[in-house]
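Archive entry. Fields below.
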Amino acid sequence: MPISHDKLSNLIKEAFPDAEFELVDLVGDQDHYELQIKTSKFKGLSKVAQHRLVYNALSEYVGEKLHAISIKTLG
Amino acid sequence: MTEQKTLDQIKAIIDNNDVVLFMKGTASLPQCGFSGVVVQILNRLEIEFKDINVLEDPQIRQGIKDFTNWPTIPQLYVKGEFIGGCDIVRDMFTSGELESLLKEKSILKD
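PREDICTED_STRUCTURE:
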């Protein structure tokens, strides 16, 4: 189900106030996003742990609701 | 919430197979782009693996998400350890980290 770019952006900003991120709607249907995110909160964490932080922030939408989000974590 | 017997079933699969991919579709016929990417990577590295088609079993489909505490499919397990989904596996493949990990776990020969 489509989620607006703004809504997702805001969730990320709330969860990671210091993050530099880029959120791209890949297909234009608001249902396939690509997120590149860099935040100090990722320091020392494995990739799996970093992704889990992102998933937790978006938990309301991820899984069955938002169809697809591709995550690239940095930092 | 997932039943204990499903969680036990998942644990057994992961314990009894060196490399397991919980995916949508099968290895020969993936039904999702992300699952397909992981299959391609495993094939490229010539890794034998057990494919579990979550579309065939809604209990497993939800169960693996609860088991791993990870909301999406595909999910790759190597010797009982959750490695990641498509994004992580692809990054690890590109960086060479996946191959190193598989050698370390004696899945790939040195």
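CURATOR_NOTE: The mean pLDDT of chain A is 89.
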